[in-house]
Specification:
The protein is of the alpha+beta class. 39% of the residues lie in helices and 18% in strands. The chain has a domain at 35-100.
Length: 100
């Protein structure tokens, strides 16, 4: 049997490629407690804008009330920005913060 001497996997040329490793950090959408908006309004907003279930929205509303603010959603800036603006349009104070 004749061995093919032209193929040596251990000696094949390795090609280095650059890989984009910089990734945008995730953000969190914070809703702040106030004395103006009702629980029902905040719950409806979380369901309609953030896609929360009724149970998720109720739990978030309680945490917002007792903690003063609560991150109701985590994602990348481009995904959260329109939701933050829509919540602010409903006169509920919402902000975006980079997650540490």
């Amino acid at each position: 049997m004749i061995k093919d001497s032209s193929y040596h996997p251990q000696y094949d040329e390795q090609i280095d490629t650059d890989v984009l490793t910089e990734i945008e950090p995730p953000y969190q959408l914070l809703i702040w407690n106030d004395d103006i908006n009702t629980f029902e309004w905040v719950i409806d907003t979380l369901i309609e804008i953030c896609g929360h279930t009724k149970e998720q929205a109720e739990q978030c509303a309680m945490l917002i009330h007792y903690k003063g603010k609560y991150p109701v959603k985590k994602d990348y800036y481009e995904a959260l920005k329109p939701q933050c603006e829509a919540i602010n349009d409903r006169n509920i104070n919402a902000t975006l913060e980079i997650m540490a």
